[in-house]
Design a protein that fits this description.
Elements (H helix, E strand, L loop, with lengths): L2 H15 L21 E5 L6 H11 L5 E7 L9 H11 L3 E7 L4 H5 L4 H15 L7 E5 L14 H17 L7 E5 L23 E8 L1 H4 L5 H4 L4 H7 L5 E8 L6 H14 L3 E7 L17 H7 L37 H9 L19 H12 L18 H9 L19 H11 L4 H8 L14 H15 L14
Helix pairs in contact: 1-15, 1-17, 3-5, 5-6, 10-11, 13-14, 15-16
């Protein structure tokens, strides 16, 4: 067998045994800050919340790592230390508090110093709690959702930035340094016009995390929205002004009215796990504007359980690496795409993209788990094999497709696999068997070797199963290695299979 055909057989291996590697670290404390893991949490509606927080973890089979809390500036000024109680409930459940600090006055009043003494008192309460030791630490999000018109401190970017900085400076002044508190800029996902979220950003020197509120209000209140329309679409906007900050989905919730909430939750966890900046999410487990609850103390939404079953959904507590002296070190991703850093074939994705063979599903995302259609496969193959264009129109069902020229080019080269008379079925998903049949002639396999492409007997993969973009990269890269007269890849990279 020729060297080329030996390489070609590796393509067969790729088609029948591709598996996406797990992304979680085996010891989360080695890398507790980065896109290798996802920390999940909830807001509990219970005043004595400890058992509620532990219960949701038991029901899911995995503990949560974060607890969302709401604090009012005057909550402990009447002889009862409510601040300590709220934070201690979270800590005793082995979670780190994500504390939203509301001051229900205008941003200008906070910025001009009118509430300095009250801020100092509240910060001193927090300091007393952290001084109990055992690693006690928390995240604080001052004046959350400041880009909305439903809070009195909202709609004033300049006032908010001054007020935020004043709160942080006063808190640091009472001893809440980076070993005890990290600071969160936590806008709503969508900003009320005429301002943009970036207009409110207080500055890199005083923000450790960027958070957003993401809600699907559902048909009972408004209309059903998917995760992107609910707010995750703004993640790229956040990267435009804070590309090297870790992100938290500091508030998130979905109604069950008008759609499939379990599917919505699965999509949420998957999107958060793949996003290069997102390190955690905190679910709003309340019955308020609508019934947001995924956990009622006895029953857990299957979508939440499935989300928590992801390998990257990890319990880490205490978060010691988050609370070290100095700025928070965080590198979200490298290269062209934001969502390929966890892939063992990241350099292959980047190599193919640099040569125009593959492109992203968006400007910043490769979408490795997205299925490949037959028309997309045609374009990938034409680019990879550098086929000469054809002016002949071979099929009647690809009119108007942006991939039509490449479908015709593939057909002219004798590599297209029609699905019927004058039909290519461009939008149907390409199967492993079909992809193998397209590749075999291009790689000059003999008829018997071509049949091996379709012989998946005893393999782990379904020959008629669809192909993901990640799998397509592995096949293309191996094929190009086979066709190249000399190696054109990094010889130091490990083999893909």
């Amino acid at each position: 067998m020729s060297e080329r055909r030996s390489f070609c057989l590796l393509v067969v291996v790729a088609l029948v045994s591709i598996a996406i590697p797990a992304s979680a670290t085996e010891n989360p404390e080695i890398q507790p800050l980065g896109n290798e893991i996802l920390l999940a949490g909830v807001y509990s509606d219970q005043w004595v919340a400890g058992s509620d927080l532990v219960g949701i973890g038991q029901a899911a089979g995995k503990r949560i790592s974060l607890t969302g809390t709401f604090h009012h500036l005057f909550e402990s000024e009447h002889g009862i230390d409510n601040t300590d109680h709220i934070l201690e409930q979270a800590w005793n459940a082995q979670t780190t508090p994500v504390a939203n600090l509301e001051i229900m006055v205008s941003a200008a009043e906070i910025a001009n110093g009118s509430y300095d003494a009250h801020i100092a008192q509240w910060a001193a309460r927090v300091k007393s709690w952290t001084d109990k030791g055992a690693g006690r630490s928390l995240l604080i999000a001052p004046l959350q959702e400041m880009n909305g018109n439903w809070v009195p401190y909202g709609m004033d970017p300049a006032g908010f930035k001054s007020a935020y900085r004043r709160i942080v400076d006063i808190s640091r002044g009472v001893g809440l340094d980076a070993t005890k508190v990290r600071w969160v800029f936590a806008p709503n996902a969508w900003s009320v016009e005429p301002f943009r979220t970036a207009d409110y950003y207080p500055g890199e020197d005083i923000v450790d995390f960027v958070g957003i509120s993401v809600y699907n209000f559902g048909a009972a209140v408004s209309r059903w929205t998917g995760i992107w329309d609910s707010g995750l679409a703004v993640l790229d906007e956040l990267r435009s002004f804070a590309p090297y900050k870790p992100f938290l989905i500091t508030q998130v919730g979905s109604s069950s009215a008008g759609g499939d909430r379990d599917a919505w939750l699965r999509d949420l966890f998957n999107a958060a796990a793949w996003d290069p900046n997102v390190v955690g999410l905190v679910y709003f487990n309340f019955n308020k504007e609508t019934d947001w609850k995924v956990w009622d103390g006895a029953n857990l939404a299957p979508g939440w359980r499935e989300g928590m079953s992801l390998a990257s959904a990890t319990h880490v507590w205490p978060l010691r690496r988050w609370f070290q002296p100095g700025p928070l070190a965080f590198t979200p991703y490298t290269g062209r795409f934001a969502d390929d850093d966890q892939l063992e074939v990241q350099q292959d994705v980047e190599w193919l993209a640099e040569r125009g063979i593959v492109s992203g599903c968006t400007e910043r995302h490769f979408c490795p788990n997205q299925w490949v259609s037959r028309e997309q496969a045609a374009t990938f193959l034409v680019r990879a094999l550098d086929l000469a264009p054809s002016e002949q129109d071979f099929f009647a069902d690809d009119e108007g497709s942006p991939h039509e020229p490449n479908i015709n080019t593939l057909a002219a080269a004798g590599l297209a696999q029609p699905c019927g008379t004058d039909a290519f079925c461009p939008t149907a998903l390409v199967s492993r068997q079909q992809l193998a049949a397209m590749l075999a002639p291009a790689l000059a396999l003999s008829p018997s070797q071509s049949r091996q492409f379709g012989d998946f007997t005893g393999s782990m993969a379904d020959p008629w199963g669809a192909v993901t973009r990640l799998e397509m990269v592995k096949v293309l890269r191996t094929s190009l290695r086979a066709l190249a007269p000399v190696p054109v890849w990094n010889a130091n990279l490990p083999w893909l299979f």
